[in-house]
Design brief:
It is built from 7 helices and 7 strands, in the order E-H-H-H-E-H-E-H-E-H-E-H-E-E. The chain has about 200 residues and is α/β, with parallel strands linked by helices. The strands form 2 sheets. It has a 5-stranded parallel sheet, sandwiched between helices. The chain has a two-stranded parallel sheet with strand order 1-7. Helix 5 links the parallel strand 3 and strand 4.
Length: about 200
């Protein structure tokens, strides 16, 4: 599902992409490609975080605000609202726990019941049972690393990957949480991608 960056978000993305590109090229020139891998991965991570929501960025740049709107988050809210209004239930995966917290805050403000699971959750199976046995809870937020395997969530029929993961097999495993024995409905899986960014 392709979406665009919000205008201010796109400006931040373009500015940071140029700055990071210059830094990475300078590192590669100085230390060689092999020794520059961490700075390359860090640059890619920062760009991917902007795509999700500028609030994920930890920047120490004077005059640069990360308290900006997110085109992807707006598209996500519209999509989830439609899915829930049509009586469906949805699993939402993100590798960024902070992104799950942003979504969780919106759900709380909107009075939409949800279940939640990340690596710090102590009640992993209680959350799974609650979601599977409570048809009035339409959404389950799950950290990709914490919930990619070992869970049976066939009560959902939609899956949204908020951010793309570099290994598609991990995404497929996560989607398979709902596409398992006992699933009687068609399952729809979406991956949200910001156009003209590193995600695409």
């Amino acid at each position: 599902y392709f979406c665009g960056l919000a205008e201010e978000q796109a400006e931040l993305y373009a500015m940071l992409a140029k700055k990071l590109r210059d830094q990475v090229l300078s590192n590669v020139e100085r230390e060689g490609l092999a020794k520059s891998q961490m700075s390359i991965l860090d640059a890619l991570l920062k760009l991917r975080q902007i795509c999700c929501h500028p609030r994920l960025l930890k920047l120490d740049m004077p005059g640069v605000s990360t308290n900006l709107p997110s085109g992807k988050f707006d598209a996500f809210r519209d999509m989830v609202t439609d899915i829930i209004d049509e009586g469906h239930r949805v699993l939402v995966f993100s590798q960024f726990v902070q992104m799950l917290h942003i979504i969780r805050s919106w759900l709380q403000i909107s009075n939409i019941p949800f279940c939640y699971l990340d690596g710090a959750s102590k009640d992993r199976f209680a959350q799974v049972d609650l979601f599977n046995n409570s048809s009035d809870i339409p959404i389950f937020l799950i950290s990709l690393k914490a919930g990619g395997t070992g869970l049976n969530l066939t009560s959902a029929d939609y899956v949204i990957h908020y951010d793309p993961w570099w290994n598609p097999a991990v995404e497929d495993q996560a989607t398979d949480r709902t596409h398992r024995i006992g699933q009687t409905r068609q399952v729809f899986a979406y991956k949200l991608i910001c156009r003209n960014t590193v995600e695409e």
